[in-house]
Amino acid sequence: MADRLSSLPDKILQRILLFMPSREAASTAALSRRWRGLWPTPARTVILDTRSYGRDCTRDAFFHGADAALAAHGSVTSLAVHVEAESIEHGPDCIERFMSQINGGRRDRHHIAGDVLGHPSCRDVEELSVTATLPAKSSSSPKRMTARYRAFQRKQGEVEMPEGPQYTGCYKLSLAAVPSSALRVLRIDNCKDLTPAPGTALFPCMATLWLRRCVVSLFTLRDMIAGSPKLTALRLEGVYITTKVPSPDDQVGNYYGYGRHNGYGYRNADEVRRTVGWRP
Amino acid sequence: MEVDKGKGEAEETRKVAEADRDTVTLKSSDGKLFEVSKEAAARLSTVLAGMIAGGSIDDNGTDLKQIGSEALENVVDYCNKHANSIPSAALISSSISFNTAPFKEPEEWERKFVDRLSHDALFDLVEAANFLGMERLLDVTCHKISEMMKGKSPDQIREVFNIKNDYTKEELEEIRQELAWAFYDD
């Protein structure tokens, strides 16, 4: 059998590498001389995925690899971060702890916000995706909120129950950590608390905002939209919009929602637009 | 009255079709002819779009000497399927939003389309897509190849694709040290 893969032109091999997590893409340099120098590719794309570290991805290995992959590019245009619960140490809040471990109130050595999103190579990121998945049966599902959510739904009688595992979000992310100056597309999945930046965040280039299975306060969402003058697409998929900023002594939070607005071409697009104050 | 009107419309349509056919005929390197939707061909292939716009499409079969009949059949099949499929919401939104590869996930039918191909047929299709400037088909086929490489050690990848390791032991050791962060303990 001929080696048809290595016979493809450089630009096709680099296109293949773009679909692979950066760690695996970089390691193809070891295949043969043909593969040396193809990575990093001119597309300046970095994919950080815990699954590329085998079944037991340690924080040390992940953050060390992230730093190396980002530094190798100098400047990154497109960044995707994915944390998969199946590939890290399990337990309550495992995603949250993996992304930003707090030890007795002190920040640990590694932190997604500071060490990845705050990496000098990410300053001019145009496309950013932060995603995480929990195992199907998770001990960290916010049952209390779900119960509240159900009650809300019964009252409203117009919002469908989400399918699949009953949780919304598994990590916190501060908008202050998101490199915003060149950001054109932002996708965030499964974030349980999207916290606002101090002052008003400004996303001068943002055209698309896509939140999926996130919890976000109405105020934060309004601020983001107000700070994104070029926004042309807003996609809220299974997003829980809270109307009260949770305070430390408010354990449950006051989750009135506009509930869950489904997918593309929302069922209540006008209502969503009115609610979040978006006039495209 | 109604019947006459319908008839008139049908004739009108036929006249338009004669003047401006909605398919183009492509000829493989081994002389086989394939018909493909003109709209889909122009939308999916920059090279075919250029030929259609430039009037260099031959009604008796446009020669594509670089592409064998099996690969051309797959290309045509892909174009025709694409012409008939309604893109999913996810595809629409990801294609309007994202420019770069990791976000351009194939559709379910596109996955199935490349999954059924043999090793050689897959590479024939990549080369044909590259030759015809078919960006979307290149993404779908490149994504498939990346799936075949993911989660494998360099040794395993070499085995799947029959890649000959032409490094000396010392060179390989050097690469592994240079990119120590990128290697499993394999």
TrEMBL record, chain A:
Q: Which InterPro entries match?
A: F-box-like_dom_sf, F-box_AtFBL13-like, F-box_dom, F-box_dom-containing
Query: What residues does the F-box domain cover?
Result: 2-38
Q: Which parts of the chain span the membrane according to its record?
A: none
- Return the SUPFAM superfamilies for the record: F-box domain
Coiled-coil annotation reads none
Which PANTHER family does its entry note?
Answer: OS08G0328600 PROTEIN, PTHR32141
Output this protein's name.
F-box domain-containing protein
Q: Which organism is it from?
A: Digitaria exilis
TrEMBL record, chain B:
Q: What does the record give as its pathway?
A: Protein modification; protein ubiquitination
Q: Which domain of life is it from?
A: Eukaryota
Q: How does it assemble?
A: Part of a SCF (SKP1-cullin-F-box) protein ligase complex.
Please explain the role this protein plays, according to its UniProt record.
Involved in ubiquitination and subsequent proteasomal degradation of target proteins. Together with CUL1, RBX1 and a F-box protein, it forms a SCF E3 ubiquitin ligase complex. The functional specificity of this complex depends on the type of F-box protein. In the SCF complex, it serves as an adapter that links the F-box protein to CUL1.
This protein is called what? SKP1-like protein
GO terms of biological process kind: jasmonic acid mediated signaling pathway; protein ubiquitination; ubiquitin-dependent protein catabolic process
Organism of derivation: Digitaria exilis
Alphabetized, the UniProt keywords read: Ubl conjugation pathway
Residues in a coiled coil are none
Span of domain SKP1 component dimerisation? 136-182
Region of interest: Disordered: 1-21
Output the SUPFAM superfamilies linked to this UniProt entry: POZ domain (SSF54695), Skp1 dimerisation domain-like (SSF81382)
Q: State the family named in the UniProt similarity comment for this chain.
A: Belongs to the SKP1 family.
Residues covered by the SKP1 component POZ domain: 23-84
Task: Work out whether the entry's keyword set contains Manganese.
Answer: no
